[in-house]
Amino acid sequence: MRMRKLGASDLMVSEISLGSWLTYGVGVAQQAARACLDKGFDVGINFIDTANVYGRGAAETVLGETLAGRPRSSYVLATKVYFPMSATDRGLSRIQIEKQLDASLKRLRTDVIDLYQCHRYDEDTPLEETMAALTDAVRKGKVRWLGFSEWPVDKIEAAFAMADIERFVSSQPQYSLLWRAPEKAVIPLCRTHGVSQIVWSPLAQGVLSGKYSVDAPPPAESRAANDDMNGFMNNWLTRDVLRAVDALKPLAQEAGCSLAQFALAWVLNNDNVASAIIGASRPDQVTENAAASGLQIDPALFARAEQIAAQARR
Q1: How high is the pLDDT of residue 31?
Q2: Residue 110 lies in a domain
Q3: What's the pLDDT band for 313 if we cut at 50, 70, 90?
Q4: Could you give the CA distance from residue 254 to residue 207 in angstroms, rounded to a whole number?
Q5: Region 117-124 average pLDDT
Q6: Would the CA dihedral through 248, 251, 255, 257 be positive or negative?
Q7: Residue 269 CA neighbour count, 13 Å, CB half
């Protein structure tokens, strides 16, 4: 497993990271979560990403219990804040950041979050208030570094322009062969400000693994067949997308790897990407995806893949 520096921070993170959206504490039992985490450490993954809203705290709780006993210095822990945790608790106000951060620390059984991310932009709270609260969290030692996810470009620019605040070091956008929107503005802007990308859904929620077919129902053990985890997949399970994915398979064969490894290697080919977040419900998925780190793929194959994917991108 190769490591990359996360933006202007002192964090070195594994090129493949393990996420917990729709899985741990939600669609995957704790025993399976532990097996995936153990396998992740076995193959060199050191970066774990979660959020307070995943399972309304359940994912953080499972991770806290599962990581207990491991040396805290052996992994980089990231979580997020913004989405509703109750009928009245949401957003990035000072009150919410302080309240939700303390709750996350308790659930994760740690004294410090390595990377604390704003899960979305809060239009109801002044940016100055959000950045001041995040800065205080860092200077109090509860958080080491800051990040954001899916912020509008003008808000990112506004945060970069502020004085006497702790700086963002990471951006977490959706990014894959089938979703390249961050390339237009977010990635170029971040590159000039020492901010790395930690990308979510690099396999388009598993569609780029090649497991789904136009002519057959989803495999029984897949995310698409699990009602606890398939709520966001309809836009990917279209005839055009699945046909494009089928056309990508020979390219992965030519490269000597699985389609999932090929798609992850494509994401990691962007030098502004520090890590690609994978989801896993079984240890063998962790092993396969981790093997994408360090793959050397012929650029001509990537160029052909981009042409094919362009026909089906949303």
Answers
A1: 82
A2: yes
A3: low
A4: 20
A5: 98
A6: positive
A7: 20
Mean pLDDT, to the nearest integer, of 236-262?
A: 92
Per annotation, catalytic residue among 24, 54, 75, 212: 54
- Residue range 109-125: average pLDDT? 98
Count of domains for the chain: 1
User: Using CA atoms, how far apart are residues 1 and 122, in angstroms rounded to an integer?
Assistant: 36
For residue 202, give Cα distances in angstroms to 91, 104, 144, 156, 165.
26, 26, 26, 22, 31
For the record, the structure tokens of 126 come out as: 């002044």
Known catalytic membership, residue 54: yes
Sign of torsion over alpha carbons 33, 37, 40, 42: negative
pLDDT band for position 111 (cuts 50, 70, 90): very high
**Cβ neighbours for 106, distance < 8 A, ≥ 6 positions apart:** none
Assigned domain for 219 exists: no
Residue 85: give its domain's CATH number: 3.20.20.100
Look-up of token digits 């569609």: 207
Say if residues 138 and 108 touch (Cβ distance below 8 Å): no
Per the structure, the complete domain to which residue 113 belongs is given by 3-206+270-295
CA–CA separation, 137 and 181 (whole Å):
31
pLDDT of residue 211: 79
Provide the pairing of β-strand 3-5 with 12-14. antiparallel
For strand 76-81 and strand 3-5, is the pairing parallel, antiparallel, or unpaired? unpaired
Long-range contacts of 310-313 (CB under 8 A, 24+ apart): 311/240, 311/244, 312/178, 312/238, 312/240, 312/241, 312/243, 312/244, 312/245, 313/178, 313/179, 313/180
Q: Does pTM top 0.85 for this prediction?
A: yes
